[in-house]
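Deviations from the work plan: none for this task. Representative record:
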Amino acid sequence: MNRRVVVTGMGAVTPVGIGVRNFWANLKAGVCGIGPITRFDASRVKSSLAGEVKNFDPLDWLEKAEVGKMDRSAQFAVAAASEAMQLSGVAGTVDPNRAAVYLGTGIGGFETNEANCFKLFDKGPRRVSPFFVPMMIANMPAGLLAIRYDFRGAALPAVTACASGTNAIGEAVRAIRHGYADVALTGGTEAPIVEVGVAGFNSMKALATAEDPNAASLPFDARRAGFVIAEGAGVLVLEEYERAKNRGAKIYGEIVGYGSTCDAYHMTAPRPDADGAARAVVEAIREAGWQAGESVYVNAHGTGTHLNDVAETRALKIAFGEDEARRLAISSTKSATGHMLGAAGAVEAIVCLKALAENVAPPTINLLEPDPECDLDYIPSTKREAKFDLALSNSFGFGGHNACLAFRRIGG
Amino acid sequence: MDVFQMIATALADRYGLDASEITPETELISIGVDSLDAAELLMALEEKIGVEIEPTKKLATIKDVVATVEAAQNESDSF
């Protein structure tokens, strides 16, 4: 069985806007979502900036009694899923047993974890919340969405660090493609802006420590010095193409390819030869039926770490060949959002769908001093208007996880 | 504040309920309080009164919670 899989709903909670419309308008306009950390007192850690979701009120989506029992990461997932479900109109049209949830998160309930550790240290074990474990475990956002929408098929998390959102969507595509489900809610969520998290990434030397929000998240720029931690969620409703068409659903695009590989090399560093990343891209573009000469947009993983940016550039050259790689229109929207870890790939999937639908690719903002080792077209500073045939989203995660999704608009 | 009032206020704060609608006979499940919620409620009350609360029977109604808290207080007073 090899069925076509289309997107019929999208929802976004990001540092540059809540809701797909706000998010996309700000991204195209080059708005920077990075600012001083307000989630905790950042005076003790080296990094003072983050991509925080502004003005998020969980009561817009949840009852008061629910809010205190959901980690911030789960609240984001509910908000993004609500938007996606509403846009799709799929509720009530699908047999619950044929509806699945594949939701990624890199970490899980990081805030819940930290808060309860503080309670343990300060007040002892009797003050550790009975909701500590259910709020912290990384599968709970998937479980909560299944409960919320009565989706009774598979409900699985993808936990592949910064590739989680992309892997979740890819696995959901395979589930529908091969007949295990007809509809899936899928994407990723993350709320990692906590002191212990920033401290840990700081100790790895993975985070930028710049104080200027426009000179911190600098993918492919020679000045770059690490990524900027961010939070958010992206959720898609995926459906088998014929059922979506038959019920008259608005179709936002088709997911035509997925690649998933592992470097099997190092806990955090990508393979210098970029073989694993290149194979993920090759798998995705083969499934997508890519042909030389097509106009391709790539939403890069583009974290703004030296290791990633150089390896990703190499991977694209291996996958497409040097000449075709030079024709790619590539941008890293992490320049504007920061790095939403397990949510990044899901939000960036939405970027690919919008780029195909509107014939415009958002820029890599603040890219002023191109790194000589990164010599492709990264759409610096301002958006690019072009009719793309194919869009790709790359995500790579600690653990050596490499994932790539390929999108086309429906009907060419 | 008596124990019942303290419990009603805590529940109202947590669940956005109207405290005046909570009576001793109110069943916990009817206001959406399951076993995890009840455990969390007792933790909050423990924090407030500074006495360890260990329920010895299943908590079905607000009255059961009041009795459990009062028993804990009495036990602590007898020391």
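DSSP finds 14 helices and 15 strands in chain A.
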